[in-house]
Amino acid sequence: MNITMVKKILKDGSPCRKCADVLRQLEENKLLNRIDQIVVADERDPNSEGMILAKKHDVNLAPFFVVEEEDQATKIYTVYFKFVKEVLSEGVSEQQEIKEIMDQNTDLDYL
């Protein structure tokens, strides 16, 4: 399995806040070593490796993870906690996963 994390650099050159949060969580939980590579989607450069991956996989959220299985199957994760649970097999609370989904989809609301 090969795992690529794509983090974003904004048009003004500043790092994506959510990307920095996810990197911090990976470090704190000692999971960063399980990420094979980290590439940058630089909004100022449509030809940056991360922007090319985002376009290829039709992703418009950052960070995201590209997981390439040994059988050549590729899966994209835009929800960090879902990635941690399904790919890294780490425990994640349902509340953490739901909060992240809600934060990414501001058009959703609780019933």
Q: What does the model show?
A:
- The protein has 111 residues and is of the alpha+beta class.
- It has one domain (2-104): Glutaredoxin (3-Layer(aba) Sandwich).
- 34% of the residues lie in helices and 21% in strands.
- The protein contains four helices and four strands, in the order βαβαββαα.
- It has helices at residues 17-28, 49-56, 80-86, 94-104; strands spanning 2-9, 37-42, 64-68, 74-77.
- Strands 2-1-3-4 form a four-stranded mixed sheet.
- The longest helix has 12 residues, at 17-28.
- The protein is globular and about 35 Å long.
User: What general outline do the C-alpha atoms trace?
Assistant: globular
Classify the beta-strand content into a percent band: 15-25%
Biggest pleated sheet: 4 strands, mixed
The strand order across the widest sheet is 2-1-3-4
Can you identify the CATH class? Answer: Alpha Beta
Mean pLDDT over the full residue set: 85
Rg, Cα atoms, Å: 14 Å
Q: How many separate domains make up the residues?
A: 1
Report, as a whole number of angstroms, the end-to-end distance: 38 Å
Which fold name is given in CATH as the topology? Glutaredoxin
Number of helices: 4
- Structural category is alpha+beta
